[in-house]
Fold these 4 entries.
Entry 1:
Amino acid sequence: MAEENNQAAQGQDQQQLQFALQRIYVKDISFESPNSPKVFQEAFKPKVNVDLGTHSTQVGEDLYEVVVKVTAQINHSETGNTCFLAEIEQGGLFRITGLQGDQLDHTLGAFCPNVLFPYARECIDNLVSRGSFPPLMLAPVNFEAMYAQKKQRQAEGSETTQ
């Protein structure tokens, strides 16, 4: 009898906690090569600058949009001229039930971006190749560490305002 109650309680927990990826999509995309074709006549000596950010929004009951924004600006290391600028906002819709507070925040701030980043990475590489530049293979990103740093900055900020 106790075993059946325990199994029923576990079944309820499993039903309550749900995580489902509904859709992955490109929200915004841009590629600029303002110094073409001159940039192709010079030796390619790139200086790479990559910015990365994430944000999430609740768009319905238990439905969340998470966006990973990647901006890659490549300049000529000697002249400083822009070779290209590639930017993408990779979005995803996630249905998440059974999580609240810090657990939900962690899932939206670290786990979901980990799911989306490979798609953003592939898209940036494809844009750069279509622009006739050498491939730009972005390194994997540790969104867990980024999330932890964000939480630490928030904690330090709240300590200084008290």
Entry 2:
Amino acid sequence: MKKKVAFICVHNSCRSQMAEALGKIYGSDVFESYSAGTETKPQINQDAVRVIKDLYGVDMNETQKSKLLSDIPEVDVVVKMGCNVVCPHLSAEHIEDWGLEDPTGKSEEEFIKTAKSIEEKIKDLTERIKSNKL
């Protein structure tokens, strides 16, 4: 059975959404990808949406929305995106923190850098889950 992975941060509008989208692209054969936060936004960060669409051809506005921790199923792996404040807590058999800075309000280059960083980490996570190294 596939593992369930939750990417979490406070608002579930930017980094965790990008990770959910990239998890579906690069990890779908190994895990199910979810994202959530302790607060939601009316819409996903539109800069993040544009960058993911430009780089990966996925429109997050069509496939994803901002969700609360209570909106997702129980998961096996929790990935904290990096919170300057207290990260939401979700129990799982494996928890890690990627410590990514929030690009919200910054330049497009910052969003691209964040997306590429998440892509690398997703690929690494996929390999670790595949080879039971979690």
Entry 3:
Amino acid sequence: MTSFPPLAVANAVLDEARSQGKSLTIMQLLKLVYIAHGWSLALLSAPLVNEEPEAWQHGPVFPSIYREFRRFGSQPIQGNSAGPFGLLSDSQRSIIHSVVQNYGDMHAFALSRITHEVDTPWFKTYRGGVGSSSDIPNAVIADHYKKLAHDRRATS
């Protein structure tokens, strides 16, 4: 399965959010792309994004998304990146749809708290700032989201 540049996935998340009547800040966008990437690793056994996120102070970040949209600060993002774009599969679009539906109304700080919980990939990588800007390995992200999927099935 094809994975995509972070900005292509960011554009897909922004488009999906708008189709659901939602607007996103950069912090929300960064977390939603990361969460969609995690669920893709767990459910499709394939990365959605072709780069690993970095562990920054406020959670996992794809630097190219941050650089592209930082001008919006805490305001809703207007428009999309000029590119790149990607032709996502139906299963990849389904994951993005579900992530935006289930997490897209959450405040940016609530999304950040989710990524900062003990034993999350960010928590294991950042280590109180020691791992700041280190890549968060896809294998660690996949294990985390597979555990989340297992726990959700067990409680359903």
Entry 4:
Amino acid sequence: MRRLLNIELQKLLLNRTSKILIFVSFILPFFIILLSSLKINVFGLFTLELGELGVFNFPVIWHLTTFFASQFKFFFAIVVVSMIGNEYSNKTIKQNLIDGLSKKEFILSKFYAIVFISLISTALIFFLTLSIGLYYSSYTEASIVFRDVNFLVAYLVKLVAFFSLCLFFGMLIKRSAFALAFLFILYILEWIFYGILAWSFNNKTAESIQGFFPLRAMYNLINQPFQRITMAKFPDKTNLVYDYGVHTGEILIVLCWTAIFIFSSYSLLKNRDL
């Protein structure tokens, strides 16, 4: 595993564009710090400071930071599809196979790189969240501080699954721009199917089935936190209650899709004439 990971990391770090995109992917989540210190002057009447409103209290901050950080995953998605596109355009994929790397090892090297960078990103979010939370939060008891740390697990699974999908599209299309376009096409198709299901059955049934679609399943791992924050401010508003938790079933669905994407990428490469 270490050998395959080293091979892939060398390819990424020797490519200037990949290095810049990876750097940006790791830096962008730190803008949450700027968000925490943001002060908004409301018509000169008073100053609204997000850090003082309790939105960065434990345990809700784990939900907040992982949700925002997951929005920046598109930058590394460009790296994933680019590393496949470059393999084909530079003929390095054929050279790797000639040099003794099997097709299975080739796909595994990509997957190991995806998992490795996802782990680094998750570790950064852990330390970032812990730092902001300890600074702003009114609660410092360990039982409260680490109560919703399972959002980090959901964040890691979400990154690995999304990048595995990008790997599959990269292998399928072999061109970076078209592979990224297929992400948007898949997103549109999922909503078209949802509309058909809602029209054929009802919204509740359509939402249940939509939860098995790949992109929607990934989104469901970390639902939006804004309604949860509002619930905390207005506990008497029962109409705001919703299920924001991380569920094992949803994680299993996304893990199944991850396995499908990796196996499909291998099948494409195995059956393709290079």
